[in-house]
Fold these 2 entries.
Entry 1:
Amino acid sequence: PSAWSGVNERTFLAVKPDGCQRRLVGEIIRRFERKGFRLVAMKLMQASETLLKDHYIALRDRPFYNRLKDLYMGSGPVVAMVWQGLDVVKTARLMLGETNPVDSLPGTIRGDFGVDVSRNVIHGSDSRESAQREISLWFRPDEIVCWQDHAERWIY
Ligand code: RTP
């Protein structure tokens, strides 16, 4: 098992430009904190063309690729984060909702805050493998903070 399994599992989340513009950053962080996950890295940044190309490499042949990369994800700041905890990859995807907000239940982030598939507020890694790939794309190792989380003895 990798060093990032069990309670040390990690995922990459990013509040997209619409989420930042709509002042949803605090609300989104709050949901993951209350759930019991541990924030281990975070930065507000303008994603570069190179970074977005790498991040969305699997979608490069999709009809919405240029719109997604240039007109959406590259259009303003994003808040990139790494969260840690038991089954955080799968659980975060559940908390996000479906890609298209119309399929997302109320109570999920996209179900509560989005209506349009191309403005769906947040990104979350879809597997442990993508999480590892995306974390290393968006963060240098020294940007990830190892800290003693005293709440975790009540969470696990
Ligand atoms: P994400 O990677 O952002 O968490 O999204 P996802 O896995 O739920 O969805 P994916 O199919 O990987 O699509 C990535 C992002 O592209 C935008 N999108 N636009 N028809 C469209 O205009 C369309 N379809 C997808 C969304 O922002 C989606 O999250």
Entry 2:
Amino acid sequence: HTIPPTVFVIFGGTGDLNARKLSPALYNLFLDGWLPEQFAIIGTGRTKLTDEEFRKNLLADLNQFSRSGKAKKEAWDKFGPHIQYQASDVKVPAAYEELSQRIAALEKEWGAPANIIYYLAVAPEFFPVIATGIAESHPDTDPNRVRIVIEKPFGHDLESARALNQLLAKHYEEKQIYRIDHYLGKETVQNIMAFRFANAIMEPLWNRNNIEHVQISVTEQLGVGERTGYYDGSGALRDMIQNHLLQLLCLVAMEPPVNFTADEVRNRKVDVLRAMRRFTPETVREAAVRGQYGAGWIEGQQVPGYREEPGANPTSSTETFAAVKFFVDNWRWQGVPFYLRTGKRLHRSASIITIQFKDVPHVIFPAETAEGWRKNRLIISIQPEMSIRLQVQAKRPGLDMMLNTVDMVFDYDGTYTTEAPEAYETLLLDTMLGDQTLFMRGDQVEEAWDLVMPILNSWQSRPSMSFPNYSADSWGPEVAEALIARDGYHWFTLP
Ligand code: BG6
């Protein structure tokens, strides 16, 4: 790929996302030779800093957060000079004029027009003012050269997501808008499409005739910690299910796209969201449960409950755990439940998708030989273990016919020696290449909000009386076990 001269403008340059994810990702892309000769990174923020000070901070961040370890002097000496800093108040037009001047100076130096990627790594209340500020300061820029990257959360509900889409559409074409869902950049998540659509043996099985149910479970050991300011107005449903988990569901449930192009793939994903059964206030009560963590011990450390986290509201009804049973009403999936759960301060961090197949139609083995019998399961483990396991029955070695369940495993560690890139490396490279396949289109975001709104509304109208209802280091509240146990299943975890 040839990438034209590129300027990254990072709003929120002094923020956490840039420190932990964006700058390390750009640095690793640089190390791997993906950045063009002519590139610049302009960080902006309210703090007054010189270029030198900003570079020094980023170097410290790289040393802490880059997957390639501490920056080597030689590489940093080449990378560092590409970085600039501009202190600015995004609410005043002068900020955008100054940026334009910097960009014009770079283009002059390079003797070529640059692609400009504006990355909004800021709190969502600043999205409208920045998106408008950029557009109004360059009314005549070529839409092929300017891209705008919007971090999550994209809206707080359906109405605000629509309003943001409308505002963006006033100033930008859809092909310029890159809405981030960082799960889509994860190596194992991208592999779901490869696994389903580059193998002939999956598709004939991949439907209601053979699949009994699907589970998507993203459990986290971390608590909310310092993020209560954001999290208390959000909760697990908004923070994780509306975006990351529903995107995983789309990848599992989508029809085969005709080709691997951005709009084709995203059309098939939107089809899934449109087919998903909508909730009524009555069905919400049966299909959706929530929880909030109390205090407990994790790995020998005492940890506070959510309501005792710094800055938390001591009577907060915000859920830190959510589990929902969804249906996809189409021919492929009619009657197959999709159970999604996510939560913080749980026993272990693990993101896994489990596809449970139906039992054999008739068991020929006597019951005592098949003690360890389980239905076939396909387990796609996204993180931290990166693997795909197929659980099958096998004869245990010995003179008698005894069956047990064994795993056929493809795991990244044992198969590949190259390290998987970070999600943000993939996503930043794609913004440079102009490839939107792994980004959220406006209609996808709105469909996902539309789907979860009845749950949000119902929960908001009935603050929970039982919070906290799970303790740190557990697998979540009992209601979540009950939700799936009612149908005769249990939540699956890797050993
Ligand atoms: C973010 C959420 O989008 O995803 C966080 O806001 C969550 O609350 C995080 O912890 C999980 O991402 P990852 O990549 O660590 O699984």
